[in-house]
Design a protein that fits this description.
By secondary structure, this protein is α/β, with parallel strands linked by helices. Helices cover about 45% and strands about 15% of the residues. The chain has ten helices and 13 strands.
Length: about 325
């Protein structure tokens, strides 16, 4: 039962399935586990295993029988995509996570980590966002369908704990960035979008770059390698029904971020702001006191993380331009 379970070091020889191992978070978890000596990692691409196909997922678990699971697979996208295709984001994510968790339950997965998103918290929740604010107010309408799916995942983890006593847990990351990010001109989030725009401006010799809004909103950014480290740390050090926020506990203005990115790519042109465009939410910061009390803290500084992400983007930019 959960009451008698004591988190400890995971067996490096046991089979560990990373669902979504090609995505931003999943690939980072895969790298982290490999560097920590896990010798029996299992992954499937979406072409090899459609996690929306319930029968295929159960067949996979019957065949592989993993001891541990990191559930990082999800349909993700920016505000425009979430707002335009809410049915897709709700239905596909519910199917993915329900299929994986149901199959994991049937085949005796000992430890499972479900990964959510900071968008699970109410739109007008106080800052910084505490775990206890879950389900205390209305969600942001532009991504409520995705948020509801992730909330359902948290509740499924809690239900498994109550009904079956398994020590499954959930983690909620802040804004993530790093190698493997989405640098699409139309679908990327703010940080990779700025990297691509300033790199393009540098290469083309553009005299100035104009960004949306005033640059005043505050955002928090966590390098995905830190996120992966936190995931393993939680699996080995935390057991509880409440989701755990994962972040750095500090934020930066979009204006500051733009200058950091410009410096990292070597762009020396003018940075301008179109104040007729919307700013979005003034601030979005995670309260990470729960994770800090467990003994974990982010290590990668934002400037260092952005520089290494720029290097990764340059090495892979031909893939993004096809």
């Amino acid at each position: 039962m959960t009451e008698t379970f004591v988190p400890s070091s995971l067996d490096r020889a046991s089979k560990f399935y990373v669902a979504g191992h090609r995505g931003l978070v999943g690939s980072a978890i895969w790298r982290r586990l490999g560097s920590e000596g896990f010798r029996n990692l299992v992954g499937r691409t979406s072409a090899e295993l459609d996690l929306k196909d319930r029968a295929a997922v159960f067949e996979f678990f019957q065949m592989e029988k993993p001891r541990y699971v990191a559930l990082a697979a999800a349909k993700v996208g920016g505000i425009l995509a979430n707002n335009t295709y809410p049915v897709d984001f709700l239905s596909e994510n519910l199917r993915i996570q329900t299929n994986v968790m149901d199959a994991a339950l049937e085949h005796g997965v000992e430890r499972l980590l479900f990964l959510g998103s900071s968008c699970i918290y109410p739109k007008l929740a106080p800052q910084p966002l505490k775990e206890e604010y879950l389900l205390t107010g209305h969600l942001e309408p532009t991504n409520d369908a995705y948020a509801i799916a992730k909330i359902a995942g948290i509740l499924q983890v809690q239900a498994v704990r109550r009904q079956y006593g398994l020590p499954w847990i959930s983690a909620m990351p802040t804004n993530l960035y790093g190698p493997g990010d989405n640098f699409s001109p139309t679908g990327s989030h703010v940080l990779p979008s700025l990297i691509r725009r300033y790199e393009d401006a540098r290469l083309s010799g553009t005299a100035n770059v104009t960004n949306w809004g005033t640059g005043a909103p505050l955002r928090e950014f966590l390098h995905v390698d830190d996120m992966a480290d936190a995931c393993l740390y939680l699996l080995e050090n935390y057991d509880g029904p409440e989701q755990v926020n994962v972040g750095v506990g500090e934020d930066v203005s979009i204006k500051e971020l733009a200058h950091i990115v410009a410096d990292a790519v070597g762009y020396s042109g003018a940075i301008e702001w179109d104040t007729t465009k919307p700013d979005g939410t003034p601030r979005k910061l995670m309260d990470v006191s729960k994770l800090s009390a467990l003994g974990w803290k982010a290590r990668i500084q934002l400037q260092d993380g952005i520089r290494s992400t720029v290097e990764w983007f340059r090495e892979h930019q031909d893939d993004f331009r096809k």
